[in-house]
Design a protein that fits this description.
CATH topology of the largest domain: Heat Shock Protein 90
Strand content: 15-25%
CATH superfamily of the largest domain: Histidine kinase-like ATPase, C-terminal domain
CATH class of the largest domain: Alpha Beta
Order of helices and strands: HHEEHHHEEEHHEHEEHEEHHEEH
CATH architecture of the largest domain: 2-Layer Sandwich
Structural class: alpha+beta
Number of domains: 3
Number of strands: 12
Largest sheet: 5 strands, antiparallel
Helix content: 40-55%
Distance between the termini: 46 Å
Length: 381
Amino acid sequence: MQHFPVVYTMNYVALGRELAKDLGHSLSILEQSPIGMCVTDLEGHLLIINDPFLDIVGYEKEELIGRSFTEFTHQNDLPRNLKNFKSLVDGELSSYTMEKRYVSKDGRDVHALMKVSILRDSLEERYILAQVIDISEKVNLIEVLKHRNIELNAANRQLDSFIYRASHDLQGPIATLKGLGNIIDRQVVDEDLLQGYRETVFKMENINRSLIEFTGIRENNQRNEQVSIERVMADCLDLVKDHPNFISSNFNLKVDSDITFNGDVRILKPIINNMLVNALTFKDPVRDLIIDLECLSDLDHIRISVQDNGIGMSSEIRERAFEMFFRGSHLSKGSGLGLFMISQMLDKLNGRIALDSEDGKGTRISVWVPVKPDPAVLSGF
């Protein structure tokens, strides 16, 4: 516990009293202020102190009058405090604001935010006025949040690692199931049973791919590639060829073969893939599915659109469509990550998305990605 003996000179007491008389109404404002306030001379000796300031530092008034603020300022904050104080006294600053720590009477560090300025009496004598707020609770809360954030990031890394490993471990069994499906296809007569098997395998494969992609978009080690957008589209169509509705769907492609994508194709492909899976999944059972896949480019962006004549979305579903794990229809049997992942991946590419859908008529999803990647995006910032 830090303790100051009551040893002060009558000069400081008398000076404080004279200044208090001179301040008049201003002194009443100082004393009634809900925040800590004190007045010092140009050397930092305390002359007037209000009760909230005493509550902050934990001393009695008699223990502080005539003392220098340096005696109960944290040593690590003292050099900066003295530099600002001197600049104020020398006229280089009209005022200054800073965070600092006081050392209270019981030895605690008290975090404070203070504003310090010049105060003049009726004779134009200069004094120093400090207004002080105790921000210890805020600082402590920030420290707790930082610690919790560190713990949360560590848990997230562990979870990402688990999902990534588990997803890759599942790739082998899924490939085996697909191989068995080809054998069963030649032997099983029950088409409904075979169709159910195909749907289950595709669902497992798509969920597994979504999990791998989801963990991948959290990484910052992006790379810059140049690849034909036509090639990217072909690869994405190949990825969805096992979807139960793929064979019976009609695709209209409008792709400019001259467009080259410059960026991380590992992020672009899952975006297009999820757009196609959405269109294939939400087929209207009463009509043939038509999917328009369009890719155009201007000087700044590549626009990729997937439009279908499926079941569409109501306004209520549209409002929640980008929520994580949201499933807006009984036809949605996947992970509920599709549109959420698209928006997250577009953030990585510094792109944007637009959703236009009408219940019973179909859906159009359009995304824009920069023609040239932002260097800051590639560096992970």
